[in-house]
């Protein structure tokens, strides 16, 4: 039987499920039940299509043409694209939810960015994450080859990437995607966490360990005028943070200090240490946690934001998706609860964990660990 010969007449009729007699009436056909897991396999493949479409739209600058309701013909003319296929492409973006459509009477629909996503997709917005999305897409597109090598050959040796090479990659990341993700998500999260800690207005010194472009320190220093601090990073990344600090006119209170946190002194006498998504890169965690404890003033607080595996939440799969390659490279993504235990082991007295906190790409656990008692 050819596909063309598969008409409604040739479909099996389930008892009690009469086929519609009129061509215009709507009714549901009896469909075979397929396991939800098979549909999940197709959904996984179709998700790649969403990522391709989003990346192409970003690369073409399509969202800049969609600030207000605009028809496909106009977008096509502005970007020198095929009008017919631009219509289909915009219809697809609307089905993803990133565009809204307005249907005119007897006229083709027009489209605009959904107001909720506009701050993140319009390049003029301070919260723009387009480059970060394109970067993640590029990395994930290469993931198939890398996973196969890792699967066949196992965890690479420590010599596979030197600290020298790593820091230049991190410096580039700090200039673009980490900065965009910090502005859009990490900074608002940090501000909210800080505001909820009872002693935040007594903080005088902070360390942002592995702070990338330093925007968390900059935001907290802007909120708390008595706060000074250090962004400790690989030297090439610390230079990026220092430029951001100077651009924010905070060089009297903040500075980027270069070093390797595994071997170099990151200072002491801190009231707050912020440490997000850094411990994954530390092979032997205990000495670092002990040094963090020692670096705090009595009553000081360590805020650790790190993904954990197996918290049993619906978001566990997202964590596994994001961190699979890193875990296969031997990076540390600890089982839920283990970082809290290790912090107790390093001498922290109170450790409070908040699960499933929104963070760039995948959620994290936020652990608030105190050295001794809260100062009065
Ligand atoms: C995933 S990024 C996180 C950046 C930032 N904390 C955030 O949450 O946006 C990890 C950072 O840790 C830094 N890092 C990793 N290992 C380091 C080391 N041994 N010494 C200094 N910095 C390190 C990297 O340079 C990078 O900026």
**Structural class of the helix and strand makeup?**
alpha/beta
Reported for the largest beta sheet, the result is: 7 strands, mixed
Question: What multimeric state do the chains show?
Answer: single chain
CATH homologous superfamily identity of the largest domain: Vaccinia Virus protein VP39
User: Looking at the structure, what is the overall shape?
Assistant: globular
Overall pLDDT: 91
Q: In CATH terms, what is the fold-level topology of the largest domain?
A: Rossmann fold
| Total strand segments | 10
Organism: Stutzerimonas kirkiae
Keywords: Methyltransferase, S-adenosyl-L-methionine, Transferase
GO molecular function, one term: protein dimerization activity
Pfam family, one: Dimerisation
Would you write up a description of this structure?
The protein has 376 residues and is of the alpha/beta class. It is built from 13 helices and ten strands. It has helices at 36-60, 72-79, 83-96, 118-121, 130-141, 143-153, 163-175, 177-196, 215-223, 235-247, 285-295, 316-328, 338-345, and strands spanning 70-71, 99-102, 110-113, 205-209, 228-233, 254-258, 270-276, 296-306, 350-357, 364-370. Bound molecules: S-adenosylmethionine. S-adenosylmethionine (SAM) binds next to helix 7 and helix 8. S-adenosylmethionine binds next to helix 7 and helix 8. Residues 1-26 are annotated as: Disordered. One of its GO terms (molecular function) is protein dimerization activity.
């Amino acid at each position: 039987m050819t596909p063309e010969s598969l008409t409604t007449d040739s479909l099996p009729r389930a008892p009690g499920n009469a086929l519609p007699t009129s061509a215009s009436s709507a009714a549901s056909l009896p469909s075979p039940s397929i396991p939800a897991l098979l549909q999940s396999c197709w959904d996984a493949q179709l998700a790649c299509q969403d990522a391709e479409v989003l990346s192409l739209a970003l690369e073409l600058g399509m969202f800049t043409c969609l600030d207000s309701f605009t028809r496909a013909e106009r977008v096509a003319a502005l970007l020198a694209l095929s009008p017919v296929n631009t219509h289909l492409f915009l219809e697809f973006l609307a089905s993803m939810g990133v565009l809204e459509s307005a249907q005119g009477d007897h006229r083709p629909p027009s489209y605009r960015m959904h107001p909720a996503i506009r701050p993140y997709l319009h390049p003029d917005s301070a919260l723009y994450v387009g480059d970060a999305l394109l970067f993640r897409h590029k990395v994930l597109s290469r993931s198939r080859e890398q996973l196969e090598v890792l699967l066949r050959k196992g965890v690479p040796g420590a010599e596979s990437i030197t600290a020298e090479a790593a820091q230049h990659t991190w410096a580039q990341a700090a200039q673009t995607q980490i900065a965009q993700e910090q502005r859009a998500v990490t900074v608002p999260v940090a501000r909210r966490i800080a505001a909820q800690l009872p002693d935040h207005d007594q903080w005088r010194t902070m360390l942002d360990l592995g702070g990338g472009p330093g925007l968390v320190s900059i935001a907290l220093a802007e909120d708390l005028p008595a706060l000074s601090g250090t962004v400790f990073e690989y030297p090439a990344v610390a230079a990026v943070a220092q430029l951001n600090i100077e651009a924010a006119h905070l060089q009297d209170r903040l500075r980027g200090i270069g070093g390797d946190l595994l071997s170099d002194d990151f200072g002491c006498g801190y009231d707050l240490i912020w440490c997000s998504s850094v411990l994954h890169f530390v092979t032997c965690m205990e000495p670092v946690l002990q040094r963090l404890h020692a670096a705090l003033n009595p009553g000081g607080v360590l805020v650790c934001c790190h993904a954990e595996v197996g918290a049993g939440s619906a978001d566990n799969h997202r964590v596994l998706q994001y961190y699979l390659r890193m875990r296969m490279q031997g990076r540390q993504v600890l089982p839920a609860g283990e970082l809290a235990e290790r912090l107790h082991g390093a001498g922290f007295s109170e450790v409070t964990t908040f699960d499933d906190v929104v963070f760039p790409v995948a959620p994290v656990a936020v652990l608030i660990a105190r050295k001794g008692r809260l100062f009065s």
